[in-house]
Design goal:
The complex is a heterodimer of chains A (518) and B (200).
Chain A: E1 10-15, H1 22-30, E2 35-38, H2 46-49, E3 61-62, E4 66-69, E5 77-82, H3 106-110, H4 124-134, H5 161-173, E6 178-179, E7 189-191, E8 195-197, H6 222-228, E9 232-234, E10 237-244, E11 250-257, E12 260-271, H7 274-285, E13 296-302, E14 305-309, E15 324-326, E16 341-346, H8 350-361, H9 366-372, E17 378-385, E18 395-401, E19 407-412, H10 417-437, E20 440-445, E21 448-454, E22 478-480, H11 495-517
Parallel strand pairs in A: 1-2, 1-12, 2-9, 4-19, 12-22
Antiparallel strand pairs in A: 3-5, 6-15, 7-8, 10-11, 11-12, 13-21, 14-17, 14-20, 15-16, 16-17, 18-19
Chain B: H1 12-17, H2 24-35, H3 46-59, H4 71-80, E1 87-89, H5 95-114, H6 123-134, H7 142-145, H8 148-164, H9 167-172
Helix pairs in contact in B: 4-8, 5-6
Classes of the chains: A alpha+beta (518), B mainly alpha (200).
């Protein structure tokens, strides 16, 4: 791997190596730029370092403490953000549906929320490119959304017990289902600059780290590609400051590595640390916030889970967890809420399931033991739905300091009327599906997932932090590429769209740079 | 409809750990957990720790086998290392303070309800105290400073995470997901690999 001296002025520093940083890093490196990625966590060797043990794998979670406030406090750690080269893709479920065109036009369609500053046509080519590069497994044709230019790279992964049960229930309810698109390989796959990756072993452990490289986390896809093209990855480097020169542009990035402060001089900075850490770093440094919008517009997907026990042996630890999907609820008829949601079958690892059951049902004593002994017979359905931005949902810096001496973020989150109605709608539908499939002891786990917003992109510098290309309105050599810039939450899991935006930001940047230099 | 029996043969996970069905990394972490005995507390005082152990025994009874999973040790160890799970309820004090206060509150509630320390109560009385804490109606001034229901939720969740991470607890529920070296091919309903235990 290439190494750049810290006193050399590199073309770009990329902060964060997850879904927002890694694709862009590879793109800039391919264009011949000297790029350095700073990553807070370690560069793991999954085959050697990862075990099939949930507790040991909590090393992949961003476990610096965040304070969760509001009526529906958000869980972090396992639920949001990752640490290590690959970021949260190290523990994402690999569920990679595309957003639909109307997801980007919430304000036009419903008169509330926000539209994206560009249309679906601007993202679609990148969806297509990423699906092929990552080797996404999915059905062709896919039943929802616009027709695709190309089939998914690979056929769908096999359906596990939870998926079969959801299929059975949905069929009786007249709800269409399909094998889902997942960023895990249904067959061996080779890409130039990356090498060979094997087919999925059906370990069901996506949310605690893939040991084989079958799951397309960034550390086994865009990161090796970036290194192949000459990028340097500098792990265990926690960024604390962005230092400006007299003209107001960022001249160097300050970070802590092995307890020592280091500085990297650079021409451009791409901040890709995720919704919480990106906003937190800007607030700590008092940067890029002339709009006052940094930390605001925070959203989190509605993500209610309905669990049930079945007569059949399910063994929910096997197979890709999110095997099946339905988007029939994308814009349900007669809905009294904004946007829509998808339905997803879910397998689950035991500690995750039982920990949620402890919080959600409050069972203990013999009641807990009895419910836990049904683990091999449980299956779940989950929704993933849109969420509006509200005044009352935001991130601020608290007075409490973390182990690094930096202020802990405090995150306010309360579902609004629309999210409550959507969740009630979904509760009824999912209970109907599980009843039709033969479930008993059905219970609901209320939650929100995927924290989004805090550095909104838009065309109006008074209402947004970055423009439609991800560039800060205040600091011309600062770009943001992660889920913090989403103007609306979308009705699908965000990872694929974060990657697509990342490539788009890189291409726009390179185009403009080329024009300026000519 | 009733579920089939969900009692699994003892020793299944322990037997798997010595085979090449689990990776070296997995074997190491699970073997270490399996063989770590109960230890003296590092974060809690001896009295606090004894109380916490008694509470954990009510939350997750372990009466049906000779070996005991040291649940409270896991909590003590995390707090001694000042480790976080990434978030906490804003209305709660720092984790370590919350645990110390919560234990004090449980003792206070036991005295208020039954005029005796928690550890001297019958199992049924102990459960009544814990139910009152969970239901946010336990007596005691401590609960003015600490939201009882959230404390109980955190305590229960952490106890459950510690317990069900242990190979002995995983044997109880028939979980053998750690034996993944050969990959899983029989993943549909009622499809089992030979290495997956059948209910007794």
């Amino acid at each position: 791997m290439q190494h750049y001296p810290t006193n050399e002025t590199v073309d770009a520093v990329v902060i964060g190596t997850g879904a927002g940083g890694a694709p862009l890093l590879a793109r800039l490196a391919r264009a011949g730029l000297k790029v350095v990625a700073l990553e807070a966590g370690r560069h793991w060797n999954p085959a050697r370092d990862f075990s099939t043990d949930e507790r040991a794998q909590d090393k992949l979670f961003w476990n610096d403490e965040r304070l969760s406030a509001g009526n529906d406090p958000l869980a972090f750690g396992a639920n949001n953000s990752g640490v290590g080269v690959g970021g949260s893709t190290l523990h994402y479920t690999a569920y990679t549906p595309r957003a639909q065109p109307d997801d980007l036009r919430i304000r036009s369609e419903f008169g509330v929320g926000e539209d994206w500053p560009f249309g679906f046509d601007q993202i679609e080519p990148y969806y297509d490119e990423i699906e092929q590069f990552l080797g996404i497994s999915g059905p062709s044709p896919y039943p929802w959304g616009p027709a695709r230019q190309r089939a998914y790279a690979l056929g769908p992964l096999p359906i596990n017990g939870a998926g079969q049960l959801m299929e059975r229930g949905c069929k009786k309810m007249g709800i269409r289902t399909s094998p889902a698109a997942n960023a895990a390989l249904s067959a061996g796959y080779y890409q130039e600059g990356v090498g060979h990756r094997p087919a999925c072993a059906n370990r069901g452990f996506c949310q605690a780290g893939c040991t084989t490289g079958a799951k397309a986390s960034m550390d086994v896809t865009f990161i090796p590609l970036a290194i192949h093209h000459g990028a340097e990855i500098r792990p265990e480097s926690f960024v604390t400051q962005l230092v400006r020169n007299s003209s107001g542009t960022i001249a160097e990035v300050v970070y802590v590595r092995n307890g020592q402060e280091e500085r990297q001089r650079c021409r451009y900075v791409f901040l890709c640390a995720g919704t919480i850490e990106t906003a937190r770093l800007l607030l700590i440094n008092g940067l890029a916030n002339s709009s006052g919008q940094v930390g605001r517009n925070l959203m989190a997907h509605t993500a209610l889970q309905i669990w049930g026990e079945f007569e059949e042996d399910v063994r929910p630890y096997k197979g890709i967890p999110g095997a099946l999907i339905s988007e029939d609820t994308h814009r349900p008829a007669g809905a009294d809420f904004v946007g829509g949601y998808l339905l997803q079958s879910i397998g689950v690892m035991p500690v995750t399931y039982l920990s949620q059951m402890a919080r959600g049902r409050g069972l203990w004593g013999q009641n807990l033991k009895r419910a836990a002994s049904a683990y091999n017979h449980v299956a779940g359905i989950n929704i993933l739905g849109d969420c509006l931005p509200y005044e009352h949902n935001f991130l601020e810096l608290s007075d409490e300091k973390d182990v690094r001496g930096l202020p802990k973020p405090r995150v306010y989150f309360s579902n609004g009327e629309s999210e409550a109605r959507m969740t009630a709608h979904a509760d009824q539908i999912m209970r109907g599906i599980w009843a039709a499939a033969g479930a008993r002891n059905v219970w609901a786990f209320p939650r929100n997932a995927h924290v989004i917003g805090t550095c909104r992109m838009g065309n109006n510098p008074e209402m947004a932090v970055v423009n439609a290309e991800g560039q800060s309105f205040d600091i011309p050599n600062l770009f943001i590429s992660d889920n913090s810039t989403f103007p609306s939450a979308l009705s699908v899991n965000p990872a694929l769209t974060i990657m697509a935006l990342s490539l788009r930001t890189a291409d726009r940047f390179l185009d403009r740079k080329k024009r300026l230099e000519v | 409809m009733t579920l089939k029996s969900t009692t699994y043969p003892e020793g299944t996970v322990r037997a798997l750990l010595s085979t090449n069905l689990v990776t070296e990394a997995t074997r190491q972490v699970l073997t270490q957990r399996l063989t770590t005995p109960r230890q003296q507390p590092k974060f809690f005082s001896n009295d606090e720790f004894a109380l916490l152990e008694t509470i954990c025994d009510r939350l997750i009874p372990q009466t049906d086998r000779p070996e005991h999973v040291p649940i409270a040790n896991g909590i003590d160890h995390r707090l001694a290392e000042n480790k976080s799970n990434g978030w906490r309820y804003d209305i709660m004090p720092a984790d370590g303070d919350a645990f110390k206060l919560g234990l004090q509150g449980i003792e206070e509630s036991a005295l208020a309800l039954f005029q005796r320390p928690f550890q001297q109560l019958s199992g049924a009385q102990q459960d009544e105290v814990l139910r009152a804490v969970q239901g946010k109606n336990a007596p005691g001034k401590t609960w003015d400073q600490l939201p009882a229901d959230r404390f109980f939720e955190e305590l229960l969740a952490e106890a459950v995470e510690n317990y069900y991470s242990h190979p002995l607890a995983q044997e109880e529920i028939g979980y053998v997901g750690m034996a993944d070296v050969p990959t899983w091919q029989r993943i549909g309903l009622d499809q089992l690999e030979d290495r997956e235990p059948r209910p007794l």
